Amino acid sequence: MLFDEVTLRKLEQLALVADKVRAGVMKGDRRSSKRGTSIEFADYRNYVKGDDLRRLDWNVYARLERPFIKLLEEEEDLSVHILVDGSLSMNWPLNDSTNKFDYAVRLAGALGHVALAAGDQLTISLLRSDENRQWGPYRGQQNSLRLFNFLEKSAEAVGITELILSLSEYAVRGRRPGLLFIVTDLMSPAG
Q1: For residue 14, what are the contacts with CB-CB under 8 A and spacing of at least 6?
Q2: Beta strands in 10-169 (DSSP E)
């Protein structure tokens, strides 16, 4: 197992923060740039003929004698992508507790668990020369054990990874925009 129970509980208290809000697909815990139907107040705007009268703020209307529509915040999920370099250069130093690849796998597991605990959509890709292994997209904390099993089974750094080519291929696949983490040592034979 990658983490003990105490570490998992501490990870669940953390949250990933995106600089810019991206459009999500499902209801989630993150504020959106769109206005919607949550209970969180966002702003007022002037009433326009045809607006739903249920959204009219009658208290403001009574005070100002002008109709205003109450805008509420939409809450959406976040798409989290974690790319781990699985090249042989990550397998250094050999037989050591501070191995780069082992550290990268643990970091990916921790970030993934934080994302799943928050209800975000998570995709993890292991970039290798022979094949790019992918886990996800999944959401929900119940998938954490499956994530850890995937990372433990994939825990072998082999071959050479052309990072530019691998990133280009990942971008072309048309993933949902979101928060992207790349865990690599940036070592490539091409420079």
Answers
A1: 114
A2: 27-46, 68-76, 79-85, 121-127, 133-139
Quote the tokens at residue 53: 């009268």
Closest CA to 115 of 182, 33, 180, 40: 180
> What does the pLDDT profile of the chain (191 residues) look like in tens digits?
678 889 888 988 888 887 665 555 444 454 444 445 556 777 888 999 988 888 899 999 999 999 999 888 766 778 999 999 988 888 888 777 778 899 999 999 999 999 999 888 999 999 887 777 889 899 888 999 999 999 998 878 888 888 888 888 888 886 788 899 999 998 877 76
Do 123 and 148 form a contact (C-beta atoms < 8 A)? no
SS3 content of the chain, % helix, strand, coil (to 5): 30, 30, 40
